[in-house]
Amino acid sequence: MAQIHLEVVTPSGPVISDEVDIVTAPGVGGEFGVLANHAPFLSTIKTGTLSFKKDKQTKYLMVSGGFSEVSNNKITFLVESAEYGADIDVDRAMRAKERAEKRLAQAQQQADQINRARAEAALQRALARIRAAELDRQ
After folding, report:
1. Confidence (pTM)
2. In the chain, what are the domains?
């Protein structure tokens, strides 16, 4: 099977650079998949779970906000953060989810748009971490 080169890069540096069979990512317009020899493509990435398959094994990454580009049989993700599902501390992510939900409720009661947006972003990151970890453990 033909492969595509996957790169995921964060401000801290590269997370992965490898040949893979397929990549599925959380685009702002919806989830999308990319195989080898895909047409050139640009997309904004939202917080969620990115998956890729290599040698019949699927791996999961939590990614938050960024961009992707497909060109010349290569897909590159420039994202704010990325964590392998296997490396995520689920208990910590659950505590972060609970804190974000409390902050979101407080912000809604006080009509505080700035804190509401921050709490929503924190909640989305926590949920994405939990999902990536759960998928990786299946």
Report:
1. 0.84
2. 4-86 (2.60.15.10), 89-136 (1.20.5)
Cβ 83 vs Cβ 37: under 8 Å: no
For the chain, report the end-to-end CA distance as a whole number of angstroms. Answer: 25
Strand 4-10 vs strand 74-84: parallel, antiparallel, or unpaired? parallel
**pLDDT per residue as tens, the chain (138 positions):** 799 999 999 999 999 999 999 999 999 999 999 999 999 999 999 999 999 999 999 999 999 989 999 999 999 999 999 999 888 889 999 999 999 898 888 877 777 777 778 888 888 889 898 888 888 887
Structure tokens at 128: 């994405």
Within 8 A by CB and 6+ apart from 5, the residues are 17, 18, 19, 20, 73, 74, 75
Packing angle, helices 113-136 and 90-110, rounded to 10? 160
Helices (H) and strands (E) in the chain, counts: 2, 8
